[in-house]
Amino acid sequence: MVQRVGVVGYPIGHSISPAIHQAAFDALGIAARYERWAVPPADLAAWVASLREPNTLGANVTVPHKEAVVPLLDELSPTARAIGAVNTIVQIGGRLSGDNTDAAGFLRALEEVGGVPRGGAVVLLGAGGAARAVAYALLQAGVGTLAIFNRHADRARALAAALQPYARGPVAAFPLDAPQRAQWLADCALLVNTTSVGLHGGERLLAPEEVPAQALVVDIIYNPPQTPLLADAARRGARTLNGLPMLVYQAALAFERWTGQQPPLDRMFAAARAALS
Ligand code: ATR
Questions:
Q1: Nearest CA, atom 16, ligand 1
Q2: If pLDDT is split at 50, 70 and 90, which confidence band does 14 have?
């Protein structure tokens, strides 16, 4: 019987997860069909219940459902519980288990460029769902000094407070235009953009000359492959990383959870690049 699996969101048309996962299932000869499910919030509970059917491996969850699915599942991994969001559901024997592979996917992506910088501060732009997973991952990896800058400062402060129990040192929170920003940027070893700024056109949060030349600059946006932030960083001589490796690694970790098999990473990267070209 062909196994059922897929990604749920609303809307979902833009997702390249079907291309990445189907390539992996096909490469390993696993009879599974990865679908794309557009489910409005009002239908989420009924959709989650349908995952309990025996021929279902599970699902990926994306915007706007990552937090809303949490109370609908039977159990959560410690990571999903700490982040408060689920991007992967695994169905075994009718039970639904929620995990979050965004955090580990982010760390695996960072390993491609030398791993989490040792010593030096991390500056995080944004305080939404993606920021939560990235910040948790960094704190789990031992980052000691973290500053969160966000347009709505109350959101930055709420995220900092929620993550403080996982941190070795203080997690600082500022409004995006705080005067402290210049010093944090000048001193940081890693800068990560988790906001949606850069997805469209030439928009940027930082002036080009503010982008730290000494830091590793990561933008979790993968389309376009080079946001204005990354272009500015490259021009200033900084090392850069876009969001594509994080996307593929979070997918690979979900694939491993569903199948128990080693994901064919080369095929997954190739499928992601083809879907974006
Ligand atoms: P996601 O789950 O993808 O992180 P989200 O929770 O909607 O999505 O978060 C989007 C992030 O981008 C937030 O940090 C948001 O800032 P606010 O919390 O202040 O809204 C940030 N963001 C989006 N558009 C922005 C803009 N034009 N300028 C600055 N920050 C922006």
A1: 151
A2: confident
DSSP structure class, residue 192: E
pTM of the model: 0.97
Element (H, E) at 273: helix 265-276
Amino acid identity, residue 269? F
Residue of 196, 197, 222, 246 to test ligand 1 pocket, by largest number of atoms within 8 Å of CB: 196
CB 194 within 8 A of CB 131: yes
Which tens digit of pLDDT belongs to each residue from 137-193? 999 999 989 999 999 999 999 999 999 999 999 999 999 999 999 999 999 999 999
Distance, CA of 165 to CA of 238 (rounded, Å): 32
* pLDDT confidence band for 119 (50 / 70 / 90): confident
Q: How many CA atoms lie within 13 A of 199 on its CB side?
A: 7
Residue 111 CA neighbour count, 13 Å, CB half: 9
Residue 32 CA to ligand 1 center (angstroms) comes to: 35
* Peptide bond just before 18 cis, omega within 30 deg: no
Q: Per the structure block, which two tokens stand in for 178?
A: 């705080």
